[in-house]
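Good morning,

Attaching, inline, the backbone tokens for the sequence recovery test we're adding to the shared suite. The designed sequence is right after.
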């Protein structure tokens, strides 16, 4: 199962990973150069990259700012804050992603929802600490 190889799911027990893997409508396949997220759009979901590479795009000139690889996730700001998307994200090649939205969250047990939220919080804290070091 691919989920056991993704760091985001390291705190999940096998039954929980299997439960998520059975959510077939939560998996998305993006084609090369397909826009997955558009800046300014409203969408209360985030994506975990399971395979492939995506790039975050500078909206002014369409150049890649940075790449995300399997295990990375994006879209968490809109998921948590109900605000418009802050970036464009495009698939570089064929990508498989898990899309986590509010409907999926409502179907999960509280323990699983907490693990997902814990991973999001940890990522945001690491990002803040990293930015603070750079200043």
């Amino acid at each position: 199962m691919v989920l056991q190889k993704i760091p985001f799911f390291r705190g999940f027990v096998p039954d929980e990973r299997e439960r998520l893997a059975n959510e077939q409508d939560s998996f998305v396949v993006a084609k090369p150069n397909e826009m997955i997220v558009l800046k300014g759009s409203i969408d209360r979901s985030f994506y975990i990259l399971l395979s492939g590479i995506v790039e975050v795009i500078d909206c002014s000139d369409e150049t890649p700012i940075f790449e995300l690889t399997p295990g990375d996730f994006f879209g968490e700001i809109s998921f948590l804050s109900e605000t418009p998307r802050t970036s464009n994200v495009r698939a570089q090649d064929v990508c498989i992603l898990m899309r986590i939205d509010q409907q999926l969250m409502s179907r999960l047990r509280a323990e699983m929802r907490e693990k997902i939220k814990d991973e999001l919080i940890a990522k945001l804290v690491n990002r803040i600490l990293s930015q603070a070091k750079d200043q």
